[in-house]
Amino acid sequence: MSGKFKPLHGKLLSIRTAKIKFAIKMAIGLAIAIIGIVAALYVGIWVMLIGGIAEIINTLQHSPINGREVAIGICRVIFCEMAGLIAYVGIVIGSLLDR
Is 64 helix (H, G, I), strand (E, B) or coil? Predict the structure, then answer.
């Protein structure tokens, strides 16, 4: 009887470790994607949009108005949507780790 049956313990262990490795890769990929989205929201809204508006207001309050600083503030407000690239990169890297 013992010659007919092969032990399955090694195969079951390798299947479990493969499932665990896949779950860890999925969790890391999801974490990277979430970090990318949060970083994009921070950069896009706080740094670029609100920071650009604050820079324009601060520049216009001073008596010698500096046109360069006003232009930089306007560009920050206009290009705040480019922070979506940060989210895109985070999602792509996160999805590549899921494979």
Answer: coil
Whole-angstrom CA distances from 82 to 47, 71, 88 are: 12, 17, 10
Which residue is listed with tokens 């108005």?
Answer: 65
Q: Which residues of 8-26 are buried (b: 16+ CB within 10 A; e: fewer)?
A: eeeeeeeeeeeeeeeeeee
Single-letter residue type at 32: I
- Closest by Cα among 99, 96, 83, 80 to 33: 96
The string of pLDDT tens digits covering residues 40-76 is 999 999 999 999 999 999 999 988 888 999 999 999 9
